[in-house]
Structures are given as structure tokens and as C-alpha cells.
Automatic annotation (TrEMBL):
Protein name (Swiss-Prot/TrEMBL): NAD-dependent epimerase/dehydratase
Gene Ontology CC: one annotated term: cytoplasm
Highest taxon of source: Bacteria
Residue span, NAD-dependent epimerase/dehydratase domain: 7-238
Amino acid sequence: MSKMIYIVTGAAGFLGGTVCRKLIERGEKVRALVPQNDPAAKYIPDSAEVVQGDLCDRETLEKLFTVPEGMKSIVLHIASIVTVDPTFNQKVIDVNVGGTKNIIDMCLAHPECNKLVYCSSTGAIPETPKGKKITEVDFFDKDKVEGCYSMSKAMATQAVLDAVKERGLNACVVHPSGIMGPEDFAVGETTGTLIKIIGGEMPMGISGTFNLCDVRDLAEGMIAAADNGRQGECYILGNEAISFKEFCRLVSEEANCKAPKAFLPIQIANMIARLSEMRAKRKGVKPLMKTFSVYNLARNNDFDSSKAKRELGYRTRSYRETIHDEIKWLKASGKIA
């Protein structure tokens, strides 16, 4: 019987759930943290031990970290609040930064905890000029990244690295880029976009790029970091950048649907987004297009994953394969006809 227990936070989420399933497939013992009364808990595999708790509540984390005598633990900290709203949000900071600091303290308070793998984001890494690949950095500055989510991830990542240097924590960090693929039960932003394209609800796109990884590849990369990631090291888990136009072409071929007919230049899209935000603010509704969404398509999305490939054996499948598998899952789960 395995003497190791894998503690997974954010286990009811898209990546966390996939990590749990992959660990169980290889015969590992998994303990999953989920928020109190989270309806998504039903998607966690039955063989995982579920602990209800809150990253901001040290008492519930004590229960999560206490393992039977003679057992060791490895923590995969994935839970966070993800937001595409760039404005400051105290709850995002409390959960993403404060919650991570609580996890760090619990790892150090429990000597049976062998390792922490922190799931950061490529958003925590400062953007480089276009034409220059974005690589890992060893210091994270919240003032050098855009938006509240990226700020929170930069702060939390630095807290992990500080704990390695100052307190001897055995931890490493992974930086996933975007995420897509099958079993996105909560229908995240990328899956929602995919459904809109397939349903013909997106007559027009934007001439930009993004960087998306298959959730299964990210999960395997994270588990590889638990197995082989070096103390104090960061690993980018990204893919090749893809244009929105090329992404739509692949979706139209795999789903046998029409792709958007036109793609707005970034400058025009930005102007429309600004007007949309002003109008939405006046009417007290959500804008149809956001300047921050346009920024994410306009920015440099060329991330270098060579370190993760070299040290962790990380690999990514093709966009076509991921899109094909996600469409198949969307049909099987009744999310599209």
C-alpha cells in the first residue's frame, strides 16, 4: 500500500479534477479539498477522500493536512479565484495570496509533508516584447503584470519562493497558460467561446493570439512536477501560440460549422471595447466586449516551455486533437447538439 497521500486543493475545478483522476489512475491515494456545499464536488472521483474546507480558514486546513501515522503527503495547490476582470478585488487577494500563505504555513507545520507544488499562472510572469519568448523568472513583481488575477498570482508565487529561501520549504512552481479540453463541467471562458463558435453566435472575431493547453497535458505536467520538480524552481507549462483565426478554422473543421467571417484589427476592437464598457457602465450592465479581453489577444503569448520539457518530460498535444476531443465530450455531455 502506498505510504503517500496526495492533497489536492481546487479538486472540484477543471484542472484540479483532472489531476485527481490522473493520480487515481496511477493508483495514488488522493485527498481533495472542496469548498463547503460546492455542487461541483460531484465531479470528483468516488475513490478520492473529500474534505470540505476553506483556504482562508486554518482550522479546516488542519483536517486536510492531518494524515495517518507513518504516511507522507505531497500538496498540489491548485485552488484560486480566476477572474478576467482586471480591477482590484480584495476577495481575489484574500483567497489567492492569503490562502496560499496558509497552505505554506500548513506544509511547514506538518513535517510529514514532503513537498508543495504551487499552481501559478503565466500571467504572473512579466510580458516581454513581441518576438521574444517569455521564459521563467526568479522574482515576481505584482506591479509588472496586468490585472488583479495576475497580480495575485505574482504575489502568491513570490510568497512560495520566499518560503523556500527563508524557511526551507520544499516547493516548486508551475505556470500554466490558458486551459481547454474535455471535462470542463463548469464551462469556463474558453469552452464558452468554443460553444459560441459552434453555435454560430460569433459572426466576428479579433485578430489576436492566445496560448492554450490541453487540461490533460497540464495535469500530467503538474504531477511530473510533484515527481521531479526541483526545489525553488519554476516551470512554464504552455503551448505554441495560436491566432484566433487559426483556432476558429480548426473548430469549424472539427465541428463542421461556419467560422467567423471577419476578424477585427486590434486597434478597432479596442475602440469598440472602450465604447462598449462606457455604455455598459451608464446602463449598469455587462459590456459586450472588454478592453482587457482585447489586451489578452494583443499581448505577447509566446511562452517557452523548454525547461518543463527537459526536466519534467512535459509535452503538449496538438490544438486539433484537443479541439476534437473537447467537441466529442461537449456532444456526449449534451452541451452542444
